[in-house]
Write a structure and sequence with these properties.
The chain has nine helices and eleven strands. The chain has helices at residues 19-27, 44-49, 65-77, 93-98, 117-124, 143-150, 184-193, 209-217, 234-248; strands spanning 5-8, 30-33, 37-41, 59-62, 87-90, 109-112, 132-137, 155-165, 178-181, 203-207, 224-226. The strands form two sheets. A six-stranded mixed sheet has the order 3-8-7-4-5-6. Strands 2-1-9-10-11 form a five-stranded parallel sheet, with helices on both faces. Helix 1 (19-27) packs parallel to helix 9 (234-248). The termini are close together.
């Protein structure tokens, strides 16, 4: 049996420039998109329970646009006025530019790296006199606090949003030949929504080592693992696998 239907556990991209669109046309595939996880903001009431004072900090570290949204949402809900002297350190230039949604960009002290946290750490090291706040999800990479601690940079973790499983009950009777995952939370959503899930001939593709490990920990079979030297992206990994698999299953 050939692979014909694929479910990607992400929001549907713009079809105009999506590699998934090219992949579908080239290999005669039906590719659907569905978010397996959702992000929910922590309420101001729950945030207060952590007894974190935002205004006790002189700088904020942002690793995503989502973190920016929830930092300013919480600040507004708490009726705080963020001082103009607050410094902002962002994981990338694109993340830094997103701050324009909330502040007058040219009048603030904003720093950014090239998308990798170790590189941002080099920038942070020059500002050790500041007290850093880092808004995070309840599910986040341990790498970030570990690196900050090793560098002896004073920081406070602030859980401002949570990752929760989507309701996928409408997919109960929908059959796919391949499922594609990008986060361990996506695997958790699968097992929570379908506790009796049987993989059988369904192929599972993952992006990133943590997601691959989550598949193994769930007792499932991992068929496609990206990135690799031959396939640096999920679409590339899917194409390599589908081309070979369908060729051998005519």
């Amino acid at each position: 049996m050939k692979i014909r239907r694929i479910l990607v556990s992400q929001p549907e991209p713009n079809p105009g420039n999506s590699p998934y669109n090219d992949l579908a046309v080239k290999h005669n595939l039906k590719i659907d998109f569905r978010q397996f996880i959702l992000v929910e903001g922590v309420s101001a009431k729950d945030f207060r329970k952590d007894r974190i004072s935002i205004l006790d900090h002189t700088a904020v570290i942002f690793t995503s646009r989502t973190a920016i949204d929830h930092f300013f949402r919480i600040s507004q809900d708490l009726r705080l006025t963020i001082p103009d002297t607050m410094k902002y350190f962002c994981i990338s230039e694109a993340t830094a530019f997103y701050l324009q949604k909330y502040i007058v960009y040219r009048k603030r002290k904003i720093f950014y790296a090239n998308g990798k946290f170790p590189d941002l750490l080099d920038v942070l090291m020059k500002h050790k006199e500041d007290k850093f706040l880092i808004p995070l999800s309840d599910v986040h990479k341990d790498e970030i606090p570990i690196l900050l601690e090793k560098a002896k940079i004073p920081f406070t973790q602030a859980i401002m949003y949570r990752t929760v499983s989507s309701d996928l009950s409408d997919l109960k009777d929908v059959n796919y030949d391949m499922l594609c995952f990008f986060t361990p939370a996506g695997i958790k959503s699968l097992t929570q929504n379908f506790p009796n899930f049987e993989q059988n001939e369904i192929k599972i593709a993952t992006f990133g080592p943590a997601t691959a490990q989550a598949v193994r920990d769930a007792g499932l079979r991992l068929d496609v693992e990206a990135p690799s030297q031959e396939a640096p992206s999920m679409p590339a990994a899917i194409e390599r696998f589908v081309a070979e698999f369908n060729k051998n299953n005519k």
